[in-house]
Write a structure and sequence with these properties.
7-stranded mixed sheet; alpha/beta; single chain; 5-stranded parallel sheet; 237 residues
């Protein structure tokens, strides 16, 4: 299928919203998307302005803003979202000040999830090809936070990442790859460093196995990158 001159295939009749949610290139300047972002901004402003004692008013705004909201959803404004309607929240959710949800793809938040202040969930991403960026093309991939996840303040969860049930992300970490269940992950980029506390023996052993597997994959990536750089240096000689 050929290119229609705007970076999108000829004959693709999907809306830009449909393209965005399917993980394909889309144009963020599309009028429908501009309208949806404006509506989300209005809802976020209303959430920030509501009387803190008005729990019912807060709940009405949250139900209008998000795709799904479970029981006991506490959000401490300000909150910023791209669309809001692509965020699906489970029960017993707490979100501290200054969080950002770039929900250009679906963001799924499980039950009993805690977000520290300034946590940022970036489902949105951009191509590394500058020609594509200059043309305004973007894409996005889903983020999933499992049940019982705690994300520390100012941590960033990047596009396409899943954080497994009960895992903890250290404050200030940048998560670029999936995090297995029942581990503590820290750093930039974040890596699992230990199991969470209170696990049964079998679950703790599984967590250690996942930690060592993640470390091995990281080491193998670093070795491949070093080999590629050495090959490039030899070509320059």
């Amino acid at each position: 299928m050929g290119d229609g001159g705007n970076g999108f295939p000829v004959g693709d009749t999907r809306s830009q919203l449909e393209r965005m949610l399917s993980g394909d290139f889309y144009s963020c300047a599309d009028p429908e998307l501009v309208r949806l972002r404006a509506e989300a901004a209005v809802a976020c402003a209303a959430l920030a302005a509501v009387d803190p004692h008005d729990a019912a008013g807060r709940e009405r705004i949250q139900e209008r803003l998000f795709g799904k909201v479970g029981h006991t959803c506490i959000i401490t404004p300000p909150l910023r979202v791209d669309y809001g309607c692509n965020v699906f929240i489970g029960d017993n959710f707490y979100c501290n000040f200054d969080c950002v949800f770039l929900d250009c793809a679906k963001i799924t938040i499980g039950d009993n999830v805690l977000l520290g202040p300034g946590v940022q969930l970036y489902a949105a991403t951009h191509p590394t090809n500058p020609t594509d960026r200059d043309a305004g093309r973007e894409y996005a991939f889903p983020i999933t936070l499992g049940n019982g996840v705690w994300v520390g303040g100012r941590a960033i969860i990047n596009s396409g990442v899943t954080v497994g049930d009960h895992s903890v992300i250290g404050a200030g970490s940048v998560v670029t790859r999936d995090v297995p269940p029942n581990v503590v992950a820290v750093g930039t980029p974040a890596v699992p460093i230990k199991p969470i506390e209170g696990l049964e023996k079998a679950a703790e052993e599984a967590a250690w196995a996942a930690i060592w597997a993640a470390r091995k994959r990281k080491q193998e990536r670093e070795q491949r990158e070093a080999a590629a750089f050495d090959a490039w240096k030899r070509q320059q000689a």
